[in-house]
Amino acid sequence: MLRATCIILSRLSPSSSSRRCYCIRRCFLHATNSLRFASIDNDKKEKVKSDDLKVDMADLEEALKRDEMPTDYKENIRKLKEQKKGIREIFTGKLAMVIVGVSIILAIILSGLREKKMRELEKERKQTIGKARIGGPWELLDMDGKLGGSEQLKGNWLLLYFGFTHCPDVCPDSIEKMVEVVEILEKSEEKIKVIPIFISVDPERDTVKRVKEYCAEFSPKIKGYTGSKEQVAKVAKAFRVYYSQGPKADGNDYIVDHTVIMYLMDPDGDFHDYYGQNRSAQEIARVIKLKVFKRDMMQNKKKLWFY
């Protein structure tokens, strides 16, 4: 604008030189003032914008304090909170799954180690019993006069009783109790089968025929065994059974003093337990039932667990 004004004034006549200088001066001053005022206006506008921004920020802070922020701000903050909550829930859920999984794995490992330890203890127990030589392989004459014994009876639970056929009272009572135990177990819900075994400690009088007749008086389930003095002595020693022939009276009449105990053998032919005269048939049956149950549980776990 200033330039255009100067060009117009330059084209005026020379006579108006003084006036021309005056006009130029006026135009220059006007232009300078215009620029200065424009600059002032811009500064004022920038200041106004800055002041407005400060006011807006102050209002926002005040609104935050009063929980009166705009709806769109609230919505954005709510969404952010929900996202954080969702992420936290996902993380917590996965962490819980990992913890549960690790716990299950540890439980399985510990259970396996515990079962392995139990089997080792059971093996040591059997080895200890074996060292004490309670039970073990044995062979005598059965009621048919044939050699037989522990090997032929394997796979069955056995109750062994050592006595003699001429026993006046102790042996009959013990054999009747043994038969009662067997019947209780067979009639139980588990239907446990136990074979009653009678072994004579009087080889001098107890022949195969005599033992067969004697056992039949109590139960057809009883399997009777006898043998020579050497054979009977060997079996009695294996089971730590004491027996001693008393003095003979008239003819061939005498009493044999002997251990009054029933021995429980498991299907592997190993000694498991023993029961004296003070135990009733019901008590013995209950104990045997627990023994059978425990062994079956161990056998089943052994089949299921592998290494």
TrEMBL record:
Entry's Gene Ontology cellular component terms: mitochondrion
Disulfide partners: 167-171
Signal peptide boundaries: none
GO MF: metal ion binding
Residue stretches spanning the membrane: 95-113
UniProt xrefs under SUPFAM superfamilies: Thioredoxin-like
Keywords on record: Copper, Disulfide bond, Membrane, Metal-binding, Transmembrane, Transmembrane helix
InterPro entries documented for this protein: SCO1/SenC (IPR003782), Thioredoxin-like_sf (IPR036249), Thioredoxin_domain (IPR013766)
One GO term (biological process): mitochondrial respiratory chain complex IV assembly
Organism domain of life: Eukaryota
Thioredoxin domain ranges (all copies): 129-293
Annotated Cu cation binding sites: 167, 171, 258
Pfam families hit by this protein: SCO1-SenC
Family: Belongs to the SCO1/2 family.
The name this protein goes by in its record: Thioredoxin domain-containing protein
Provenance organism: Acanthocheilonema viteae
